[in-house]
């Protein structure tokens, strides 16, 4: 593990432990007895707050790393956590059902990573009505839908998706000629996260390249493979692709390989999953804009501890991103799932 990754992990543990200690002090001053320590724990803060987390599908390595960040931070700070995941990226109803099943249980805070801006709002309404804090991570809850349900999340923790797309756009400009043909593969049509990444990319490249098409591939590798195959066949001079996530980026890489154009077409995506980092190292993906799902999950758990203890959180907490290309792919892979660049915990002072 790199020095920077170790430093980040130490800061996470310190903040989580500090939050847990604060909750213990709060509970000691209360006339209400705690629920007791969770099974297998050594007591302490785990009896003072129980956290429920509902995230996207673990079929995607991004959310596997997010789950790891939540679980390990809970373990290190002695907090009892229950993590439920959707079956896959399209399981909007199933994800909402899992949240509804947790809503009636005795949790002091909820971490939610919704599939869409609205699919968890109905399930969150009774949680909000009970005054239980909700921490929104990674994918934002739709503001209008939240307001209609009287839902006011304690904070939103996630990537600046516009900036992430912008980093990808800057990379493309550095690696193709002016006026080059470029294609864009987005996630689910209308998705806020995908839209922000695509908009950030477009803003970065401006009119310096020719965007020949923009298609949605539902965040799925096989769909992106099909879409990219068709784009390359119809536009043999295409020089670059931007994909709004790594799974789609890897599908595009396969399409480029099938067309015999590896090394001729730049492919850059967003996420920084381990398989994408390996692809960059192997010369498949040209670059990925790495998010840190481990950090997002860890920060979400910490924010829940803080909110449950009655401390107000900032409206938005930004998680870091970094461009990974051939020059630093090994460093990023060695540190995965933690950040490979120095990052100060924004919740440390809380």
Automatic annotation (TrEMBL):
<dbReference type="InterPro" id="IPR028082">
    <property type="entry name" value="Peripla_BP_I"/>
</dbReference>
<dbReference type="InterPro" id="IPR025997">
    <property type="entry name" value="SBP_2_dom"/>
</dbReference>
<dbReference type="Pfam" id="PF13407">
    <property type="entry name" value="Peripla_BP_4"/>
</dbReference>
<protein>
    <submittedName>
        <fullName>Substrate-binding domain-containing protein</fullName>
    </submittedName>
</protein>
<feature type="domain" description="Periplasmic binding protein">
    <location>
        <begin position="52"/>
        <end position="310"/>
    </location>
</feature>
<comment type="similarity">
    <text>Belongs to the bacterial solute-binding protein 2 family.</text>
</comment>
<keyword id="KW-0732">Signal</keyword>
<feature type="signal peptide">
    <location>
        <begin position="1"/>
        <end position="29"/>
    </location>
</feature>
């Amino acid at each position: 593990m790199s020095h920077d990754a170790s430093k980040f992990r130490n800061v996470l543990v310190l903040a989580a432990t500090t939050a847990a200690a604060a909750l213990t002090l709060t509970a000691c001053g209360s006339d209400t007895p705690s629920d007791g320590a969770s099974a297998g724990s050594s007591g302490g803060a785990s009896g003072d707050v129980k956290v429920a987390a509902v995230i996207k599908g673990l079929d995607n390595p991004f959310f596997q790393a997010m789950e790891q960040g939540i679980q390990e931070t809970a373990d290190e700070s002695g907090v009892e956590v229950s993590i439920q995941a959707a079956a896959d990226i399209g399981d909007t109803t199933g994800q909402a059902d899992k949240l509804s099943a947790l809503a009636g249980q005795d949790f002091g805070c909820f971490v939610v990573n919704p599939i869409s801006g609205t699919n968890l709002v109905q399930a969150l309404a009774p949680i909000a009505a009970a005054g239980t804090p909700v921490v929104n991570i990674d994918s934002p809850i739709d503001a209008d839908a939240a307001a209609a349900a009287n839902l006011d999340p304690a904070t939103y923790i996630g990537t600046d998706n516009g900036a992430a797309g912008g980093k990808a756009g800057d990379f493309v400009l550095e690696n193709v000629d002016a006026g080059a043909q470029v294609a864009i593969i987005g996630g689910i049509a209308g998705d806020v996260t995908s839209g922000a990444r695509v908009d950030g990319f477009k803003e970065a490249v401006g009119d310096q390249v020719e965007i020949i098409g923009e298609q949605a591939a539902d965040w799925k590798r096989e769909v992106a493979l099909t879409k990219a195959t068709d784009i390359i066949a119809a536009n043999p001079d295409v020089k670059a692709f931007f994909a709004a996530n790594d799974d789609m980026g890897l599908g595009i890489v396969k399409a480029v390989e099938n067309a015999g154009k590896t090394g001729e077409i730049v492919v850059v995506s967003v996420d920084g999953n381990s398989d994408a980092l390996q692809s960059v190292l192997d010369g498949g993906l040209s670059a990925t804009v790495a998010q840190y799902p481990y950090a997002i999950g860890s920060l979400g758990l910490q924010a829940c501890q803080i909110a449950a203890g009655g401390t107000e959180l900032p409206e938005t907490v930004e998680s870091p991103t970094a461009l990974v290309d051939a020059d630093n792919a090994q460093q990023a892979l060695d540190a995965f799932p933690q950040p490979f660049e120095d990052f100060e915990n924004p919740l440390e002072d809380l």
